[in-house]
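step 3/5: co-fold with cobalamin
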Amino acid sequence: MRDQRTEAGVLPTAEHVAGAAAEARLQWHSSISSGDAATRVRPSPSVSASAVTVHLVNPSHLSFGVGVITPRWLFVLASATPASYGRPHITDETLEPFAVDALRSGDVVGIGIHTGNALRGYEIGTLARARGAVVIYGGIHATLYPEEALDLGGAHAVVKGDGDVVWPHVLDDALRGTLQRIYEAGRVDADHFVPARWELLPKGRYMWGSVQTVRGCPKHCSFCSVWRTDGQTPRQRRVEAVVEEILELRRRGFRFVALADDNFYPVTLADLAMAERQHNVARLEQLRALRAERFELMERLAQLPSDMVFFTQITMEAAEDAAFLDATRRANIKGALVGVEAVTPEGLKDVYKGFNDVGEALVTRLRTFRDHGVGVLGSFIFGLPSDRPSTFAATADIADRAGVAFAQFVMLTPYPGTVDFAAWEKSLGNNAARIGDIPVTRHWLIPQDQRPKVYAPHPVMAPDEIRARTQAVWDHFYSLRRIWARSQVTPTIRARIAFVLLSKLYRQMYANTGIATDSARVNRANRWARLIARPCQYLFTARPLPDLQLPAADGGAGVRAGARG
Ligand code: B12
Ligand code: SF4
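step 4/5: write tokens
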């Protein structure tokens, strides 16, 4: 199937879609015509839910055979699929390509896209529609650009927002022939988040499970769309629901669980102080309740088997909150992605992230996490307008001195839905450079290997200089000597080997396949990643504990009985 991917870049065209519709062997009949206000997909009267297979596809133009983190949406939508449709068929293309040829006419194909994999998603959708499938898109990119999926991705329908509640209705509409073009699903209340169906996980393919505890983030960073799409009001899931899912994963042999949250620390001490200063009683109560729930969750995590390891995403402000960090330690939250972004005050101003620290204060803050047993994955951005050639070495130095366990050095990419993107798009007007027919303001539609690495002209550095310097910082940080030194934080030799392999894997997956311009290097990185991924997966697996029980809210002893360690 790999050769069906147009890595070299064939953008789906209107002809593809029209041809596809004509070709489809119809059990379902599509009466879509361009410009129609509503799509009507009519099934033959004999079609019932049980005759339809629901496919859920996570697109990727690269497959590594093994995945690091389970793409949560696949298992959530599978769970939201009514039993009458039978067992949904899940494909994560980061493991292996989707078998479009195996599709039957009338099958439903749900495709979830973020901006980076939208093009591959459109290729799958177009091919699926050509085989007579009903194609439905969702995910953050489809939420931002529903018309694009309809125009270029062969979509019959697009879901904007959270799929948890609307998905069964969309499937019913598809069956009845009343499919709408666009569903405004919006933001689902936390009590309606659907738990994932982990029994559908393919065995031995992922290192980390993923469980969401909160959606939304009160901040407003300029390069991030989360606060706009997921909202600034944190929607926290019930503690019991979160714990039950984690337990389910541990029963299946997952010790490592990523808490797939936008921001695990949604209430800061500064927020509380501000509400107090303003004598805003209602706000103070609301914030205190949210904070109390976080502590309650962490107390429950602390009662889970002690061999469990959690990873989350957190803002740097948590470092000033000793009580919170003590609770994270007890909860076995041993790693967190911290958005450092920039090491200079000018850089932080560029990204509206004034709540972060710089210089020595930054080093101290990041070390505080480590001192509380939380390893930091520091996320840094290069290519900000205030960056200078010296910024690269200064960043590498801070990452070393702050003792971060992992780091990612990403090049500033204007993601749609962000403040940065809107300003950039406006600044280019009709003068955006084009690659082929595609303006750079639609960079995700440009074939992967031809995408620019740097989007906005920089005041003092050429694009290639930024790219080369960024690559050099990755090389520096992930040299074997440095990785080995950092691995000392782990408790056992097995953990140390896992740390080294994961570091190398991370670097191959994210740096060399993303930043390198030379296709030989990208292919080499891909081969390396595939090679390292298998032993890595083995090292992350634990003995399944099928009999593990939910600890009582007041701290049951039963759960510990089943755990090792
Ligand atoms: C956890 C996470 C990660 C993890 C794990 C990824 C994984 N394997 O799952 C890690 C750390 C590895 C990661 C990496 C990256 N991530 Co990330 N990540 C997230 C995060 C915080 C949560 C995702 C999640 O699991 N949510 C829980 C699930 C249930 O929600 P969901 O995916 O949104 O799905 C719901 C709806 O969207 C909808 N839906 C989704 N698909 C479909 C399909 C259909 C058919 C339907 C009907 C509905 C539907 O229904 C679902 C249930 O409600 C999001 C933030 C966010 N709010 O989305 C960022 C986010 C998705 N990541 C983002 C980015 C940019 C990245 C990176 C590129 C960062 C980088 N520079 O390296 C990489 C790219 C990785 C890759 N190649 O895929 C951006 C994407 C922006 C964009 N416009 O595309 C986000 C939105 C964060 C941000 N700051 O803006 N990420
Ligand atoms: S980057 Fe992080 S802190 Fe900033 S808005 Fe996005 S999720 Fe929130």
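step 5/5: annotate
Residues 1-45, 556-565 have pLDDT under 50 and may be disordered.
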